Amino acid sequence: MKSKYLAAALLSSLPLFAHAQTNVTIYGVMDAAVAVEDTDAPGEDRRTVINSGNQSSSRIGFRGTEDLGNGLKALFNIEAGVALDTGAADSSLFGRRAVVGLQGSFGTLTVGREYSPIASVAAASDILGQGMFGSNLSAFGTNRLTRRLANSVNYKSDSLSGFTVLAAYSAGERTADPSSDLMGVALEYKNGGLYLGAGYHVFERLATGDDKELAFGAAYTMGAFEIKGNYLEADLTGANNAYKNSNLGVAYTTGANKFFINFQQQKIESGAKGNTVSLAYTYNLSKRTNIYTTYAQLRNNGRGVFGISSSSTAVTPPATALGADPSVFTVGVRHSF
């Protein structure tokens, strides 16, 4: 009889053991700012707006791991964007990231909606953290570089002597050409305060040929100083339409204060060009809360109509306002949990 009671006790405790091996975290960022935006387009006045995500995109996410034994883990991550100015969600509920996968001595394998190999290089080499106005997020968008991959299988190796390999395949899921398939790879190197990265994508967007996307990035931290730079290019099928984005930025931290400056140039092979100077400042009120302010000014040439991008919004003149020079000033607060 005692053995029956013992067996029942062990069976009833199994869910507790399973739960102890599973780790689920709820996390997020809430970021809102007052912004003064000016497209400099004829007939358009400067406007004051409330923006969500001018330093970091507002979001809520769920991630977790389960220990499967023998060094193997299952993992998942779903992340949804939130617009604090209206309370609206992104058009895709978990459009920021939605993956499940396995992690072990072989590295990490994920399936779902994932960041591209090039996105990893661009994020690590942007002094503005792909957040504040003037960040290299201007290089991602329609007919530019690809930041997130739907319907994708992704691999990231463990670090070997500082080197990490990333690879991805995104299925266009089409039954006729062009396939809309994308294949990408990246190689990253980290050693102390040094980071180097390079990435390459091939994207079958049109039946007449493949788009090529590439990224090179570097970063170095020395005490209170950081310097980061990158070169991003989307070489679209066809002549004289390659898009190029170059950035060089510096940051300095003293106590709770951090100062940023970034220079950016955007070019299209046909002759359009725009140069942006961005200044930013953050002050940490705690480990999870900070206030910030940014100012960015873009100068387009006579053929340019480029805009200034932050993590969740952009200030861009209409396509007909060639040569317009947009600018933006923001003051905001960000809280992470």
Structure explained in plain terms:
With 337 residues, the chain is mostly beta strands. It is built from two helices and 19 strands. It has helices spanning 2-20, 117-124; strands at 22-38, 47-52, 59-69, 72-81, 97-104, 107-115, 148-156, 163-170, 182-191, 194-206, 209-222, 225-235, 243-254, 257-268, 273-284, 289-300, 308-309, 314-315, 327-336. The strands form two sheets. A 16-stranded antiparallel barrel has the order 1-3-4-5-6-7-8-9-10-11-12-13-14-15-16-19. Strands 17-18 form a two-stranded antiparallel sheet. The longest helix has 19 residues, at 2-20.
Compact summary:
The protein is mainly beta and 337 residues long. The chain contains 2 helices and 19 strands.
Counted beta strands = 19
Query: Any low-confidence stretches, pLDDT <50, length ≥5?
Result: 1-20
**How does the overall form come out from the CA principal axes?**
globular
Estimated structural class: mainly beta
| Biggest sheet strand line-up | 1-3-4-5-6-7-8-9-10-11-12-13-14-15-16-19
Radius of gyration: 23 Å
Please tell me the overall pLDDT: 93
Strand content: over 45%
Terminal CA distance = 50 Å
Portion in helices: under 10%
Largest pleated sheet: 16 strands, antiparallel, barrel
The helix tally amounts to 2
Order of helices and strands: HEEEEEEHEEEEEEEEEEEEE
